[in-house]
Design a protein that fits this description.
The structure is a single chain. With 203 residues, the protein is an alpha+beta fold. The chain has helices at 3-51, 61-77, 84-92, 100-103, 125-139, 162-175, 184-187, and strands at residues 115-122, 145-149, 152-159, 180-183, 191-193, 198-200.
């Protein structure tokens, strides 16, 4: 057997070993990307539902903060950022039009479909803010939020499906084994936006 035949056999062996691995890796990347896009679209739908409400019916700072959040979500994930003038109008005195396509997304705003991964509990807001930024980054779960419940500032990653919550809690438990999944409709059925956190109603 000459050297060229040996090289050919070796190259085929290497290809047989690494091509399936490469295909599996690419498949996983595509699946992850699709899942991320699906999650982003659900947040856009939730933000859209918020901006369909008339801001003039309840002119409070909490309501305004919620609408600011909704505008930021749409600008970040929709792919078509709105102008500053449009954003200001939506926050202050304008609603999004009632379109039939939006009606199909009502399940995204159903509290029973909102889940949270609780990965921290602190006595101070500053400590909790560290958790939802630095610790969340270490976990690889993206942005999180602070909820104050039963006198404790809880670090929570809010998502729109139980399956996504189960995926995230696995990542969180690598850093914080005590992390757990909650149904937000029962864990924090209503909340009020405060300065840097959400105050849950008494359970």
């Amino acid at each position: 057997m000459d050297s060229w035949q040996k090289i050919e056999i070796a190259s085929k062996a290497v290809a047989a070993l690494f091509i399936p691995i490469a295909l599996a890796f690419l498949g996983n990347q595509v699946a992850t990307s699709n899942k991320q896009r699906d999650s982003e679209m659900k947040f856009v739908e939730l933000a859209t539902a918020i901006l369909r409400q008339d801001p003039r019916t309840e002119q409070t700072s909490e309501n305004r903060n919620l609408r600011l959040w909704a505008v930021e979500v749409i600008n970040r994930y929709s792919g078509v950022p709105m102008s500053n003038a449009t954003a200001t109008a939506l926050v202050e005195n304008t609603t999004l039009p009632q379109l039939s396509t939006f009606e199909q997304s009502t399940s995204a705003t159903d509290p029973s479909g909102t889940w949270g991964v609780v990965f921290g509990g602190d006595t101070t807001l500053e400590a909790a803010k560290f958790e939802v930024t630095k610790t969340a980054q270490r976990m690889g779960i993206g942005d999180a939020a602070v909820f104050r419940r039963s006198g404790s500032f809880r670090s929570v990653k809010v998502v729109v499906s139980r399956a996504e919550a189960e995926d995230i809690v696995g990542k969180a438990q690598v850093v914080r084994p005590s992390s757990y999944v909650v149904n937000m409709s029962t864990w924090c059925p209503t909340s009020e936006a405060k300065d840097g956190y959400f105050e849950c109603s008494k359970p």
